[in-house]
Structures are given as structure tokens and as C-alpha cells.
Amino acid sequence: MTHIAASPASRVPAPLTASKAITLQFGDNALLPLLLGDHDRYLVRIEQGLGVRLTCRGNRVAISGDPMRVDAAQTALNGLWRRLERGEPVSPGDVDTAIRMSEIDDPRLPLSDVPAIRTRRGAVGPRSPGQATYMELLGKHEMVFGIGPAGTGKTYLAVAQAVGMLTAGKVDRIVLSRPAVEAGERLGFLPGDLKEKVDPYLRPLYDALNDMMPAEQVIRRLGTGEIEVAPLAFMRGRTLAHAFVILDEAQNTTPVQMKMFLTRMGEGTHMVITGDLTQVDLPTGTRSGLRDALDTLEGVSGIGVCRFDKRDVVRHPLVARIVDAYEQRETAEKETRARGGRGAAIVVESAGK
After folding, report:
1. Span 100-113, pLDDT tens digits
2. Which residues lie below 8 Å from residue 6, measured CB to CB, with a gap of 6+?
3. How far apart are alpha carbons 136 and 166 in whole angstroms?
């Protein structure tokens, strides 16, 4: 059986800077090229992502650098090797996931032990700690809120859970909804019938469905009503029973719309509400229904809330850095406003004296 063995490499005393060096030995030379990638590109990716030095000689990979980062690189390589031993491929995305996960101390790791969502297109597993938490909540609760930045898989995993439950016969239908905020009063000026007017706002939901099911099956189920994709306004007055209902982009609902949606829940229904509170497109001064719902419902028994952060972004490494840059700017602006407010208070107080 192929195994991975770690043994300490020769260490050179470093009195000024703590460092660590280990060597990993791999027993299956046929799998090793798949771990390294073409022209060792996966090793380079791990080097750059974790700030360590990796050297491959024969069936050994030496890792050197900061002790914590060396441990993280070892964890990443171990995780990728286990994938290959199970007969699973390793892609650049899997390498990025291994890098992201390696620096996080989480009792659920390795994520291969977290149950995957089963669809007819295959298993969908978590690629970050936040996704692992989210998937656990989706399996345990009838109502789940997924909150966080773009690229964290909030909608994708919710659709995967919905498809998995539909194909397993646990629900009778899937209902996917979004508020068409950008349309507003301008909806009538768009060309085409009502379906053609609102479909652009629902396209991400169609894309997720097509990733989970064969296209012809999606079309057939849409035709029979087993899958319904509709704007939020179409939910008013309905009771949704034995369905898996997803409200996407929920930050663009008003409190009245959100309450209306949540109270559509009927017997045997599961609801998932996803959104990003940093991307609210409502008119200035209008409170987000998602924020209002969280303030009102968080802590209520039977409702799960998962909060993603930049570490859970799984689209492209640059997306995580973009999210981080915006967060840093927002924090700096808040600090500047706070300092300005304190200065104004001092001026007013001085004037009074």
C-alpha cells in the first residue's frame, strides 16, 4: 500500500531566525508526477502560497522555512497525496484548496472526512472550513442563512443540496428565487416577455443547476414544475410544501419582502437564504431585509447561520485578495470617520467652554 513518510532532514543551526526542515518520502513513483504537476507547477504554487522552499529529488520532497509554514506545507502535500491514493485527480483548484486549508486549525480536517453532497453528476465536497460548517448546517436544519463574500460557494452548495434531496426523493421540487432589484420600475423597458425580462437576474441559478444535472434533465424538470426559478415577487401569497427553496442575493430584499418569503415555509420544506451584506443594491436609506432577519432571528431554535469570510473564497486566489483589499479600505474609512467624529466633539466642547 502506498504511504507517505515524514522524517527530519539535516538541520543547520540558525541562531537568529527559527527554521525547520523536513523531508517527505513518497512510495508510489507513478503517482508522484500527479502530485508535482507539469514542470513541478504544483510545488511552485505551494511555495508561493505558503512562503516555503520545496525541493524534489527522486521520490523525496524537502520542505524548509518557518516552522509553522513548513507544517502547513506538509499538511497540504499530505492531503493532496491522500486524494491521489483514493484515485481522485488533483487540479490547480485542489492545490489552492489544500493551501487554504493547511493553515487553519480545524477539528473537521481533513475535509475528506466531511460527508459530501451526492448528486447524479457526482459528489460535491467542502473546500474550506466555512463550506464544511455550511454543509453540516444544510444537513441538520430546515432553515439556513449563508452570509459572506462572493466566491465562497453559498449558492452553489445550496443548489447542490437541493438537487441531492430532489433526486433522493426527500423533497418534491426545488424553488429558486432572487430579488430583481436592478430591474425595479425599469423592468417594463426591457425587451421581450416577462420570462425574458427576469431571466438575466436568475441566470446564476440556472448555471448552478446545469452543473449538478444533465441539461436535458434540467429542461424536463423545469417543464414539469419540479424545478421552478422565479423572481421573489412571485412568492407572495403562496405556501411552499415539501420543497427545497433558495433565496439568493437576499441582501437586496426589504424587511417586508424577507418576512413575506420566510413565512411561505410549509410542511416538509427546507429554506436556504444566501447573501453578501457588503453588496446591497437597495436605495440609500433602505434597510436590508437580510440584515433585519439576522438581527431578528439569529439564535432562534431550528435556524442555522453560517458566516463565510475571505478565507472561504474558492473561485480564484485573486478574488480573495480583492475581498481583503475592500475590507481593509472599509476598515480604514470607518477608523477615519471615527477619528473625525471625536475631533468634532472636542471642538464643540471647547466652543461651549
Report:
1. 777 665 544 444 44
2. 22, 23, 24, 25, 74
3. 18
Cα(315)–Cα(246) distance, integer angstroms: 21
> What was the pLDDT predicted at 115?
55
* Alpha carbon distance 11, 92 (integer Å): 31
Give the end-to-end CA distance of the chain in Å, rounded to a whole number: 83
Beta bridge partners of 173: 243
Q: What does DSSP say about strands 117-119 and 122-124: parallel, antiparallel, or unpaired?
A: antiparallel
**Integer Cα distance of 24 and 5 in angstroms:** 6
How many CA atoms within 13 Å lie on the side-chain side of 138?
A: 33
Q: What is the pLDDT of residues 300-317, one digit of tens each?
A: 999 999 999 887 887 666
Closest Cα partner for 205 from 144, 152, 248, 162?
248
Alpha-carbon span 116 to 132, nearest angstrom: 9
Return the closest-CA partner of residue 211 out of 321, 297, 296, 123.
123
Residue 335 to residues 241, 324, 327, Cα–Cα distance (Å)? 47, 17, 12
Q: How far is CA 267 from CA 242, 264, 274, 333, in A?
A: 6, 10, 21, 46
DSSP letter at 240? B
Task: Give the Cα separation of 277 and 291 in Å (integer).
Answer: 7
Q: State CA 140 to chain mean position distance.
A: 18
Residue type, 55: T
Over the stretch 202-247, which tens digit does the pLDDT of each residue have? 777 888 888 888 888 888 998 999 999 888 888 888 889 999 999 9
62-103 residue pLDDT tens:
999 988 889 889 988 988 898 888 888 888 878 887 887 776
Is residue 347 over pLDDT 50?
A: no
3-class secondary structure, 319 = helix
Secondary structure (DSSP) of 91-138: -HHHHHHHHHHHT---TT-SGGGSPPEEETTEEE--SSHHHHHHHHHH
Contacts (Cβ under 8 Å, ≥6 apart) of 325? none
